[in-house]
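Structure tokens please, single chain.
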Amino acid sequence: MAARLGLPKAQEEGEALMRVRLSPLLFRRIHKWVGLIVGLQFVLWALSGSIMALLDADAVGGHDGAAIQASPIATARLMTLDKQTALGPVSGFELRSIAGVPVYEIVSTSGTRLINAATGVPISVDLELATRVAAHGTASRPIRATLLQKPNLEARDHAGPMWRIDFDDAEESSAYVSATTGRHLVTRGDTWRTWDFFWMLHNMDYVNRVSFNHPLIVIVAFCVLWLSGTGFYLLFKSFRKSDFRWLRRMKRQPTAPPSAI
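Here you go.
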């Protein structure tokens, strides 16, 4: 007898569970929690976008390598390179000045080499030369030099080993000089670092800080799309016929006859 009485009760519980699964209650619960998580990201988007817009654009984006003052090179005093100077086929050759010294930059299968164009002596980008290149065009005093075997986040747009030269200016600037070519790559200051932090929050690339095309932001985009769809669904489910009685009453009200002229 108990078993027969228990069967309808189990069926009722199953039907109740099925009604919960198919009713707007499940969508409303998921919509609430997903909306909370995505809503926090919307706050971060608004905050980071506002901060990036308020920062001085010149201080943020005006820290590329200092412009090199063009100066003529006395080619009559330059030496002529022979075939033994570059090892392997040469794919690039350039005559330029590094800290006032004319150099040949030769790119071959063996790598990039710098040669003093007046003496023929190979040049290595050591601490002294990197500091002279970094200090070009600035009155700030260099206080620290670090050799990096690979770029950090501040110099992520460049490759290869490089020198980081820190200065004692108000921005606490750091200049990056290639340890291979001796070129001034980029200079970063505190304003740029602040902008870069909020840029990381804005594009949600917490590792590389370079792209919007990564799985995390794609997931958030689909969550926003899901919120929009379920939001419309729950909006229509929240209305009842009684909510529109005032429309029916307006239709039933007789219109007043036009007054006689």
